[in-house]
Structures are given as C-alpha cells and as structure tokens.
From TrEMBL:
Keywords: Metal-binding, Zinc, Zinc-finger. Residues 33-94 form the RING-type domain. PROSITE patterns: ZF_BBOX, ZF_RING_1, ZF_RING_2. Transmembrane segments: none annotated. PANTHER family: BONUS, ISOFORM C-RELATED (PTHR25462), MEIOTIC P26, ISOFORM F (PTHR25462:SF296). Gene3D superfamilies: Classic Zinc Finger (3.30.160.60), Zinc/RING finger domain, C3HC4 (zinc finger) (3.30.40.10). GO terms for molecular function: zinc ion binding. This is Tripartite motif-containing protein 45. InterPro entries: TRIM45/56/19-like (IPR047153), Znf_B-box (IPR000315), Znf_RING (IPR001841), Znf_RING/FYVE/PHD (IPR013083), Znf_RING_CS (IPR017907). Residues 183-225 form the B box-type domain.
C-alpha cells in the first residue's frame, strides 16, 4: 500500500508547493547560462566541461576574437608572431571560449534531458492523466518501475496487485512531481511498429528485430542495445577522466611558464577525440535512458 507519508504529501498542497518551489529555485540556478545569465537554450558543452547556451556560442563565433568585452591577453607566436590576441574566457574557470576560428561545441545532452524533465514537472505535471481510468482523471503518482502514471486510487490498487503477485521487482509509488524518468520507447524508422532493442556490431548501428533479419544486417553478430550503451558510457567516462588529467597538467605547466607544444598537441587531440565520440555515443546512449 501507499505509505502514509506519500498520502499525506499528496493531500497536503502546502507541502507540495513548498517542496516544489525549493526544488524549482535550485534548478533555475542550474539552468542559467554562466555567460549571459539567461535561461539555457539548447545548451552546449565547452571543452572545460561547463555548459553554455547556443545563442552565446553563435555570438562568440560571429565576431572577431579581438572584439570581446571579457578577455585575457594571450601571446600568439604561431599565427601572428609579436601580436597580441584577445579571447573571451569561461566565467567559471577562465578556459578559452569558442571564437570565429573554433568548431561548434557539441550539445550538452544530460543538461538537455534535465531541461525536458523540468518542463514536464513545471508545465505538464497537472495535465498528465491516469493510465488506468477511462475518464480524464489527473494522475498524481507514478510507479518508478513501470513508469506508469496513476490517480491516487489506481496507484494504491497497483501496489496491492504487485504485492499479491509476489513479483521480484520492487515497485515504488512516488508523487508525480518527484518523477525522475519518463516512459519512452524508441521505434525504428524503417519499421515503426518495432522498438530499437539490438546493436549490430558489424555496422555499429542500433536496430530492431526486423532490421536484423534484413539483407543489410543478416548474419551479423549483435548484442543487447542497453548493454552496448553501458559499455559506451564506460569508455566515455575514461576519456573524460583522461581529459581532466591532461587539463590539470596543462594548467600546472602554464602556471610555471613551462608549457610545451607536445603537451598542447596531446591535449588538443584528446579533446577533439572526445568531442567526436561525445556526440556519437551520447546520442546512442540517450535512446535507452
């Protein structure tokens, strides 16, 4: 059965508004661009791993690097010997921001996901209907295992039914505004009635069951797509850890005026590799989380 704490929280509107207001205030801070202070629009990930909004990226890349209002002076010995260049820096860590000569930073997918979840909580929570009731009854709770939304009565009935069936998985009923996941099934574009559940190792492509029987993938080795996604995230985590280590090495050498071109090339190549893999692999992983 639903715990008394959950029932009381649902029935107590003052408590709900107070908790949600505090939660929303913290998220409002996290969702503001550190450069312009505005709410994030299509956040992107800087090489220093801090977020920035797309309008700021467009502004930075559309103006000459020496016209920046917030800048530091860097001696450029490779392109224009003897001349000073001005670059705008990250307000959080003093890392150089993109400019007209830079590549566009990759999308910040984790922050984008949080923005979507925040929108669901703040704008659509009181419009989500119970998945069981035939009439339009507002949902107030969600099963964190099934990811189904219920009114209070259906939520209690669902938990009682699970208890009677003695299922091994623990089904936790929580207030809808505390939901951290949304139910979503990614369907195959070629076979819209089938979900993407397999990963073709030879083609490095996420596929459905019908795709694996097609001429393109027939006979190829495959694995569970979720397992492949977890392996990809593990690889990406190691790459990011290596990038942080190299960045610390760069900052240490820079502070000691002992910066070497070989170290710079190593760091640059690592970040380029991360940028490419980040876009490719996170796009893949987001299908299953």
């Amino acid at each position: 059965m639903l715990s008394f704490g959950v029932k009381d929280q649902i029935n107590n509107e003052d408590t709900q508004e107070q908790n949600y207001s505090s939660f929303n205030t913290q998220e409002d801070k996290d969702f503001r661009c550190p450069r312009c202070g505005q709410k994030m629009q299509e956040p992107r990930l800087l090489p220093c791993l801090h977020p920035i909004c797309s309008p700021c990226v467009a502004e930075l890349m559309s103006k000459p690097i020496y016209n920046s209002s917030k800048s530091i002076k860097i001696q450029n010995t490779q392109l224009e010997c003897g001349k000073n260049k001005y670059y705008e820096i990250c307000p959080l860590c003093d890392f150089q921001l993109p400019n007209a000569n830079s590549t566009i930073p990759p999308p910040h997918y984790p922050l984008q996901h949080r923005l979507v979840m925040s929108a669901i909580r703040s704008r659509f929570a009181n419009k989500i209907l119970c998945d069981i009731c035939q009439d339009e009854v507002i949902a107030v709770v969600q099963c964190s295992t099934c990811l189904r939304n219920f009114c209070l009565d259906c939520g209690m009935e669902h938990q009682q039914q699970i208890s009677l069936e003695l299922k091994p998985l623990k089904h936790s009923i929580k207030p809808l505004w505390e939901a951290t996941k949304v139910r979503r099934t990614t369907l195959c574009q070629q076979h819209p009635t089938h979900a993407l559940r397999f990963y073709c190792i030879a083609c490095q492509q996420v596929t459905c069951k019908e795709c694996m029987w097609s001429n393109q993938h027939r006979g190829h080795a495959s694995e569970n797509a979720v397992g492949a996604a977890k392996r990809v995230i593990l690889y990406l985590t190691k790459m990011l850890q290596r990038a942080k280590m190299l960045l610390n090495k760069l900052l240490t050498q820079y502070n000691r005026d002992a910066f070497s071109n070989s170290t710079f090339d190593e760091i640059r190549d690592t970040f380029i590799s991360i940028d490419y893999r980040y876009v490719k692999l996170i796009n893949f992983y987001q299908l299953f989380t």
